Amino acid sequence: MTVEVNARHKNISEAFRDYARQRGEKIGEAFPMVESVRVVMDFQNKLCAAEIIAQRKDEMFVGTANTDTSMRAAVDMAAAKVEAQIRKKRAKAYVEPARKAAQAAEAAK
């Protein structure tokens, strides 16, 4: 899995780049179907925005840009949103076959 870290409008330190990379790797460890993660950090005046894009085959999950005064908090909030989207999608994938099986059983009666 690849993790790409980019910054807009400002250079970031190597330590923070490593933090964002580790946060992206955690998403990959928790969800093995994710093929790549891209972390984009944007600085505008005193506000920081983070966007995390996790991609798997034929699907893309985006943690929308979260604005905060702390870039670390913005990255964490965006990662939490991406993880929630992936969990929701995975839960729907498991519920759908069960629902179809229940409907088939009802129709057979």
CATH architecture: 2-Layer Sandwich
Q: pLDDT below 50 for ≥5 consecutive residues: which ranges?
A: none
Largest sheet: 4 strands, mixed
Strand content: 25-35%
Task: Tell me the CATH superfamily.
Answer: Ribosome hibernation promotion factor-like
Overall body shape: elongated
Radius of gyration over all CA atoms, rounded: 18 Å
Number of helices: 2
- Fill in the CATH topology: Double Stranded RNA Binding Domain
Total strands: 4
- How much helicity do the residues have? 40-55%
Structural class from helices and strands? Answer: alpha+beta
The rounded distance between the terminal residues' Cα atoms is: 48 Å
Mean pLDDT: 85
- The side-by-side strand order for the widest beta sheet comes to 1-2-3-4
Number of domains: 1
CATH top level is Alpha Beta
Sketch the topology as an H/E string, one letter per element: EHEEEH
Organism: Candidatus Spyradenecus faecavium
Protein name: HPF/RaiA family ribosome-associated protein
Pfam families: Ribosomal_S30AE
InterPro entries: RHF-like, RHF/RaiA
Task: Write a structural description.
The chain is α+β, with helices and mostly antiparallel strands and 109 residues long. The protein is built from 2 helices and 4 strands; from the N terminus they run E-H-E-E-E-H. It has a single domain, classed as Ribosome hibernation promotion factor-like (Double Stranded RNA Binding Domain). The protein is 50% helix and 33% strand. It has a 4-stranded mixed sheet. The longest helix has 38 residues, at 71-108. It is elongated and about 65 Å long. This is HPF/RaiA family ribosome-associated protein.
